[in-house]
Write the structure tokens for this entry.
Amino acid sequence: MRVLFATTANVGHVGPMIPLARACQREGVDVRVATPASFAPQVRAAGFDVAPFGEPAPSEIEAAMGAIPAHGGREAANLVMIRDVFGRLRGGAAREGMRAAISDFRPDLIVREPAEVASLVAAECLGIPHVQTGIGVLDTLRLLLGMISQSFGDFERDEELVPGTLLHAAAQAPLYTIVPAGFDREISGLPTQRSIHRFREPIDPGDDDLPAWGDPRLPLVYVTFGTRPAPREIDAHRRARDALSIVPARVLIAVGPDADPDALRPWPHNTIVRRVPPRSAMSAASAVVTHGGFGTTMAALASGAPQVVIPLFASDQWLTAARVEAVGAGHALIADPPPWDLLARTVRRVLHENGPRDAATHLEYEMKRLPPPEAMVMRLRDDAGLDTAA
């Protein structure tokens, strides 16, 4: 079996694909990853053959983002990013390269993430089976599809597809996700019902030791707002540092690989900052403070750590934060701008309440009981319409 994975140039989008792609490799499947040329080195470094495709010019993206209304806010910015940048611009620039990748590799199946449009268009035009990987909870996927589908009309006209073909295909495609059912919110009675296959992500807990700081008898609070050293995240780290300086806990702040931990000095007496934190930090934490990024939230759930989620910018972070609150696995501070003045009080609540820890432990147990990604390979063969012995 040959499987073509297709992703945009985004770590948060390719990350959920990697466990499934590696499981395919281990099971003898021929795997290739189609990705924007600028992102190809990162995909190769992860151990995959790459089929690079084209990208829009930076000036095109700047023009699209410049069209956001001055007072449009977060929702307007997200619509432009998803509909125009991911959909219209990136999807359009990738079409020729995607067709070439398919012609060269001749995949039996395309595994795509929902923001990569060219693979959806090519699969429907060429009659290739396709499935989707999850990059968030079901609420996030519904929101993303609703926005990005607003760009589908142009592709359908260009390819002479029946209007609505791409939306129907994307909504019906089987979904492979690491999100446990207990954390998702499934809505019955939708016009389209897709198959959902849930599996666990292999986690290396690490055997490295935590650094020594503060009073070892105090609980550990792990703070991470993603890996990008954008001004928004840097400001968030500073605000979290200041807010948590009064909490009786040891605070470990993780910054991105390109960030400078010393930029957050002076560190409070209870705090240290690390560029690459120990892998054991998440599992050792009594509470995790995060922005609601998909990868970080799933890692915290898999470790059994209750969370305090303070979303920063993307709409999916608000939705993820709402799920953490709804299932009782922590508390969400949902406001724009973020209510930093409530962070210390909320962290204290999570550290002292039994409910969030119990709910987080329950989800950890549920995730551990999910099948491994290798168990999904037979399902992928079924989705490709192949004999399981092929």
Summary: The radius of gyration is 21 Å. The chain has two domains: 2-200+370-384, 220-368.
